[in-house]
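Bump. Still looking for Glycosyl hydrolase family 59 C-terminal lectin domain-containing protein structure tokens.
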Amino acid sequence: MAPRRPPKAGVFALESGRLVQQVPEKPVEWSPEDEPATLVGNYDAANYEVGVKFQIEEGDVEDGAEAYAFAGLRVDGWNPNSKVGPSGLLLTVHSQKGEWHLSAGVRVLSRGKVELEDAYAEHEIRIRAQGDEIVGWLDGEEVVRIVWKDRIRGLYEHGLAVIGSGWHRAAFDDFYIVEV
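Sorry for the wait, here they are.
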């Protein structure tokens, strides 16, 4: 995989060996729908797995705001109509509610809920795509496995990896990409 690319939105910095999203509120920006995210990898990558540990900082989420983090793959662009910007396959976790969803661009392919003992503890997201099969894990437990048969050929067949969060401080650690 190629070296890390600059963040698409937000500001990420290393703190104690972890990548931390630094901007806790949405600034005035070029595109009104961008969310903090950073892209990594090779546009030609197709069959691979992305994993990362994330932690939402307690007390940093404004009242009523959603605290979430995501990991994704096969990102082939940036969708201005999506609330979570990257146009690819994303596994998003709303840690306060224990809710997750797997999306392809703006389309939600699957969603669910798990019990999280502590929303502000460190959690791990993993997502793997191999051919038409997409698998996602949260804290080591498989939460979704689908065979995506109705996709448009050429869409989300290859692309970059991505990690990101909402407009709150979120720390990322132990990021990896592995070819499968």
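Residues 37 and 58 are 20 Å apart (CA to CA).

Edit: fixed formatting.
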